[in-house]
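hey m, so remember when u said the tokens were messed up on ur end? i reran from scratch. heres the input so u can diff it against urs
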Amino acid sequence: MPNARRGEIAAVLDGRPRVLVLTLGALAELESAFGADDLMALAARFETGRLSARDAACIIKAGLNGAGESVTLAEVERMRADGGAAGFARIVADLLAITFAADAVGEAPASPPPPQRA
């Protein structure tokens, strides 16, 4: 059972329920794969909403590996998802949203509210 507070999502790949999570190690893997200098650059790249099929496969691989599975990119590229390409896009979108959106897991907002005057 995935734990959203830890950034985990559930997905069905090749007919099997799986958990995916972008751990710090998985994010470092993605920084390297995408040539991003840091997490902010990585997040900025994902914010464009334009990802190739290879990008999606890299993200899913990192998410599976982050959750403890040991899969290769070639194995992920052969997997099937319910809904085909749209199913893969949903998995990637859900994983990125829970990883990079603090409010999605009940975290405090990025900046505190202004002080109130009496």
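this time it looks ok to me. DSSP finds five helices and two strands in the chain. if urs says something different then somethings off w ur setup not the seq
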